[in-house]
Write a structure and sequence with these properties.
158 residues, alpha/beta, Collagenase (Catalytic Domain), four-stranded mixed β-sheet, three-stranded mixed β-sheet, 4 helices, 34% helix, globular, binds zinc ion
């Protein structure tokens, strides 16, 4: 199954998502604005932002997704070496971003966190953790994604 990918025009970070005291954006609110502007043709939509994201119970999050839903958001802010006072590394940044997008997409396919350290669905709340895992699902999680894609294939007839 080949799934076409489209890059949509950028949207503004919703002002209501900004927490002025924390100087961060509430990811659930950005996610909501993505959900409100979803293209009905899209199976999944992932927003990528450069602003730092949080949810009230956590200092920060790399991203957030609707579990078994259609939308997700990922922040590149803390995936950049510069954030930690290090030399920029575009390749490493792209790799981290790819993993986090894959992780959040996994959640939209109903996947929960994985105990296996190499699986991209392993929970990582530091970049070191992101670097440790592979940009790939474990066998079990590939099976789950495969099942979901087959269901979608039946539903959409692609
Ligand atoms: Zn997760
Ligand atoms: Zn896994």
């Amino acid at each position: 199954m080949n799934i076409p990918v489209r890059v949509l025009p950028p949207i503004k970070n919703p002002v209501e998502a900004l927490d002025r005291d924390r100087k961060q954006y509430y990811s659930t609110r950005i996610l909501r604005s993505i959900v409100n502007s979803l293209d009905p043709d899209a199976l999944r939509t992932v927003g990528i932002t450069d602003v730092d994201l949080f949810i009230p119970i956590l200092t920060y999050v790399f991203g957030e997704a609707q579990l078994d839903g259609t939308a997700a958001i990922v922040s590149g802010a803390r995936l950049r070496q510069e954030y930690y006072g290090l030399k920029p590394d575009r390749r490493l940044y792209a790799e981290r971003l790819f993993k986090e997008v894959m992780h959040e997409l996994g959640h939209t396919f109903g996947l929960t966190h994985c105990d296996l350290e190499h699986c991209v669905m392993h929970l990582s709340n530091t970049v070191a953790g992101v670097d440790k895992k592979r940009a790939d699902f474990c066998t079990n999680h590939w099976d789950e994604v495969g099942k979901k894609l087959k269901e979608l294939e039946r539903a959409y007839g692609t």
